[in-house]
Amino acid sequence: MLVRQPSGRGASAIKYDILTAMGAYALSQSKARQVLVLRFLTLVTARYNWQRDQLAVGQREIARLWNVDERTVKRDLAKLRSMGWIVVTRQGARGRVSEYALDFDRILGDSEPRWQAVGPDYAHRMKGQGGDVDPKVIPLKTTSVVAAPNTEDGCEWSLAQAILHRDDPATYASWLQKLQREGRAGDRLILRAPSRFHASYVMSHLQTKVVAACREVDDTISAVVIDV
Prior knowledge:
Strand 2 and strand 3 form a beta hairpin. This protein has two domains: 2-111, Arc Repressor Mutant, subunit A, CATH 1.10.10.10; 156-227, DnaA, N-terminal domain (GMP Synthetase, Chain A, domain 3), CATH 3.30.300. By secondary structure, it is an alpha/beta fold. The protein has eleven helices and six strands. The chain is globular and about 60 Å long. The chain has helices at residues 10-27, 31-47, 59-66, 70-83, 104-111, 115-118, 120-127, 156-167, 169-176, 196-205, 207-217, and strands at 2-3, 86-90, 99-102, 180-185, 188-192, 223-227. The two termini are 18 Å apart. Helix content is 52%, strand content 12%. Helix 1 runs antiparallel to helix 2 and helix 8 crosses helix 11 (207-217).
């Protein structure tokens, strides 16, 4: 497992920034899209697990929250999937509800044209323009091609990074390239992230990939700690 570090007060600001991005996007859309995003905002605020990136709520419960019938819930969830804002991580079955994850890259990409409407400080914070990167800046994925990491030092993290780069170069470039090895504490590999949000994102979204890659090159690793 990936050991989670306390996220501190900054985590709340990040959540508000993401919710603001959704709202700003909705207000520039048609009435039907505004209603859809308002429903989604309410659902995320009420029931989304930010630490696990998990939205696991039954359609009957959602219908009650949205004050609609279950057919409308099913239709709106399909719309959100088609927008790319949510992804099914586990299909529902008898006695078990479907589980969803949020695609923050798509949400932030769709809303980016409206950031300046919120205010220049908000746009600056979201884009991380100029000067040192604010710890609450939300780094978006890049489509740039980056070189594979140098593995000449033979350390476990360099080798694991090579695997992660091979499997998903875009994710590696955006989130994993900047993680630096700090050392080992027994069976724990300690990495350092450039910001608290960066660490939180890796822990929430990429923990399985990171741990699997580390264990592939060194099976004595049982946990990864992301420090900031």
